[in-house]
Amino acid sequence: MKNNDRLCIYPNEATVILERTEKHTYKIFQSIRDCYGLKANQYVSISLSASYTSLPEKEIRKLLL
Question: What is the pLDDT of residues 17-27, one digit of tens each?
């Protein structure tokens, strides 16, 4: 599977993109879940994280590990 085919992003990957600590990134992901009405056990999609952080989705996909 290519990076462009991925649907979700994990907090440990977002730490590199957002340049934040892992603990702070988990808080950001919880805020994303709260904002979009997701449950705690649901995944956060790349498009949701891009719209929440106002970062271009293409750039996030390019930076993913």
Answer: 999 999 999 99
Looking up tokens 């999609």, which residue turns up?
45
Contact indicator for 44, 38 with CB cutoff of 8 Å: yes
pLDDT tens per residue, range 11-55: 999 999 999 999 999 999 999 999 999 999 999 999 999 999 999
pTM for the full predicted model: 0.85
**What are the contacts of 57-63 at 24+ separation with CB within 8 A?**
60/9, 60/17, 61/3, 61/4, 61/6, 62/3, 63/16, 63/17
Residues in the chain: 65
